Amino acid sequence: METGTPDFVPAVVPARPGPGPTPRLADGLAYGGDYNPEQFPRDVWDEDVRLMREAGVNLVTLGVFAWGTVETADGERDWTWMDEAVDLLERNGIGIDLATPTAAPPQWLLTAHPEIAPVLADGYREPAGGRNAWCPASLLYRRHALRQVESLAERYGRHPSVRLWHVGNELGGGNARCHCERSAAAFREWLARRHGSLEAVNAAWGTEQWGHRYGRWEEVMPPLGRHGAPNPALFLDYERYSSDALLSHYLAEKEVIERHSDVPVTTNLMVGAGAQVVDYASWAPHTAVAANDHYTSVDDPLREQDLAFSGDRMRGMAADRRPWLLMESSTGGPSWQRRNRAKDPGEILRHSLGHVARGADGVMFFQWRASTSGAEQFHSAMLPHTGTRSRVWKEVVELGARLKSLAEIRGTRVEAAKAAIVVDDPAGWALRHGLKPHRDLSYGRELRAWHRALWDRQVLCDVVPPDRDLDGYDLVIVPNLLVVDRAAADRLSSVPERGGTLLVTYLSGICEADSKVITGGFPGAFRDVLGAWSDEFYPLQEGEAVELDDGTAVTDWTERVHLDGAEAVVRYASSSLADGPAVTRRAVGGGAAWYVSAPLAAESADRIAARLIADAGLERAAEAEPGLEAVRRTGPGRSYLFLLNHDDTDRTVAAEGHDLLSGDRVGPETTVPAGGVRVLREPVRQPGHHAPDHIEDRP
Ligand code: GAL
C-alpha cells in the first residue's frame, strides 16, 4: 500500500525555454499513424509494411499501449515482438515514433496496487480497465513507469529508425484531476511554492469569506464533493497544480529518455477550442516538436473551422510559428462520439491538408489497421476492416501520394499573422467553476465566433496565450478572458496606443490571476483603455433574446454599459438596457479599443470584423466568399498558397502558380473544385512582402 507524502513536488513550470532546431522526422512531410502490430498475428505484419509502402507511410507510432505486452510481470520483460516489429520497420525504411507505454499500466500493476488509480471529486476511486488510470502524484506508479521507460530507452534509444519519442498518450485524458490524499499533499507543496506561505494562500483566496481561513496546511484539500459552492480561487489553483503535476510527469519521462537517446521528445496534446484539460501553452515549449491530436465532430457544421482553430492554436503556442505535427486524426468516424459517421469522399485529403496549411509538417492517424477486438474495434483506420477495396484505403493511398508531392513544403512556416486571438486555459477553467453570473457559458463558443469571422474572410490569425509578445499584431481579440494578470492586461492595453486595434468581449478582465474581482466597474483590467465600463450583468434565460439596433439579437448575456471616452457603435434595442451601448469603440492615437458586451449573432460579428480588418489594414490570403479557406506558407524565396474549398460548388479566385497536387499551371485565376484543394507554388511576391523565413533543420 502506498502511503505518506510523495517525495516529489510537481514543478511550478519554468519560463519557456528557447526552441531547439525543428526535428526532421521524414524526408518530406511525415505520414502514418499508430501502429499496434501486437494486436495481430505475425503474418499480418508483412502485409502491413507492404501496404504502408504502397501508401507512402514513412512514420508510425509504435508501442503506445504496449506496457503489459512487454513487461508481462513485475520486472520481467519480453521484447521479442517489439524487436521484430522494429526490425521489420527498419528493413522497410519506415521511421518510428517510439511511444512510452505509460498511459496504460499493466493489469498486474493495477491489481497489486489499485491505489495508483485516480480518485474523483466525490471520493470514488476509478477501477482498473481504462487508460491513463493513474494518479499523477503516485510515486509508486511513477517509479514503475520510469523503470519501463528506462528499459525502453536503453534498448531502442539509439536505433537508427527511431525518429521521435512520444511520451505516454494524451496526458491528462482521464486522469487530469486526482483528489486522493497524495494529491492533496502534493497540492499543498505546490501552493507553498506558488504563494510562499499559508498566510499568502489565505490572502490570495479570500478565505475570510464564510470563515474558511486555513490555520494549518493539512486543512487545505482539493475541491471535493458536490456542494456546488467551492471557492473559485481554490478551484483555479487546483487546476493549475493538476496541469503542472502532469507536466512534471512528462518531464520526468523525458529526462530518463534523454539519458539514453538524442532523439527528440514530444507528447501528443489535444488542442481545440475552449479550455483544455491541462495548460498546453506551458507544455508546448518542453516538446521538440509540438504534436496535436485532432478529431472533427460530425455534428459540428463548421468542423473545418474548428480544425483551422486548432492549427492556429498549435502554431500560436509553438515558438516562432515553427512547424508542428498532427499526431492523430481519423480517416472516418472515431468510436467515442455519439454517432460515429464516416467522412465524406474527399474529406480525408481536404482535412489533412487543412492541418498542413496551418503549419503541420506531417499527418498521422489513429490508427494504421482497424482493431478487430477491444474497446476501439469500430474506430476508423488507414486500413479499415474492409481492407484495400475500401474507399478509405484508396483515399489513404492518394493522400500519401499528394503529401509526397508537397515534400518541399516541410520546414516552411505559415505566413506571419497580423491578427491574434488570445486564449488562456486558466481563464476558461475560471469561467466554468464556482457561482458565476451565468453557469452555462462555453469558453470555446466566443473564441470560435471571432475566429470564424476572420476565417470566413481568409484572414489568418494566431491563437496565442496571453503571455505572448503581441508587438507583431495589428488586431488583437480578447474573448472571455475572465482572469488576467496585471502584466498581460498591461500588454494588451498597450495595443491601441501603438496604432493597433484591440477588441475585448464581455467577461474579460473581471478578475485578477488569483480570481479576485477588480472593483470600480467592469471589466476592471481593461476599462481605461476601452473608455467604457459596465456595472450590472443581465444574463439571459434560455430562449430569451435581446434586440440590438443593428437588426440582430443576442442571447445568453447582456450588461449595462456606460461610456467614458468611447462611442457606442451598436446599442441595445430592447429590455431595460434599450438605448444603452452594446458595442463600443474608443479611438486611441492611431489605434482603437472595442468593447463587445454580449455574444453577437454571426451577422453582427461579421460587420464588426469587416471594419476591424479594414481599420487594421489586414490582408486576406484570397478574396473569396466564406467556405473557401486560403492560407500561405513561406520559406526563403518561396511561397505556397493553400486553397481549400469546403463548399459544394466550384470556386474561382485570383491566384496563380504551379499546383503541386495536380501539376497544373494556373493563373491569373484558378478554380478550386467543390470539396477540392489546390496548393500553389506562387511566383514570389515583391521583396519585403513576406518576411523571409528560415528553415531550421535537424539532420
Ligand atoms: C485518442 C487516443 C487514441 C485513440 C483515439 C480514438 O484520444 O489518443 O489512442 O483512442 O483517441 O479516437
In short:
Helices cover 28% and strands 19% of the residues. β27 (657-659) and β28 form a beta hairpin.
Question: Main attributes?
Answer:
699 residues; alpha/beta; TIM Barrel; Rossmann fold; Immunoglobulin-like; nine-stranded parallel β-sheet; seven-stranded mixed β-sheet; globular; disordered C terminus; binds beta-D-galactopyranose
Characterization of this structure:
The chain has 699 residues and is an alpha/beta fold. Among the domains are: 63-266, Glycosidases (TIM Barrel); 419-616, Class I glutamine amidotransferase (GATase) domain (Rossmann fold); 628-681, Immunoglobulin-like (Sandwich), CATH 2.60.40.1180. Helix content is 28%, strand content 19%. The chain contains 16 helices and 30 strands. The strands form seven sheets. The protein has a nine-stranded parallel β-sheet, covered by helices on one side. Strands 14-13-15-16-23-22-21 form a seven-stranded mixed β-sheet. The chain is globular. Beta-D-galactopyranose binds at residues 169-170, 173, 293, 295, 328, 334, 336, 366, 376, 379.
Record field, number of beta strands: 30
**What global shape is seen?**
globular
Number of helices: 16
Name of the CATH first level of the domain at 63-266: Alpha Beta
Q: From the alpha-carbon coordinates, what is the Rg to the nearest angstrom?
A: 26 Å
Backbone structural class:
alpha/beta
Regarding quaternary structure, what we see is: single chain
Specify the helix fraction band. Answer: 25-40%
Kindly report the name of the CATH homologous superfamily of the domain at 63-266. Answer: Glycosidases
> CATH topology of the domain at 63-266, what is it called?
TIM Barrel
**What compounds are bound to the protein?**
beta-D-galactopyranose
State the low-pLDDT regions, or none.
688-699
Strand fraction band?
A: 15-25%
Strand order of the largest sheet: 7-6-5-2-1-11-10-9-8
Q: Architecture of the domain at 63-266, CATH level 2?
A: Alpha-Beta Barrel
Distance between the termini: 47 Å
Average pLDDT level: 93
Largest sheet data = 9 strands, parallel
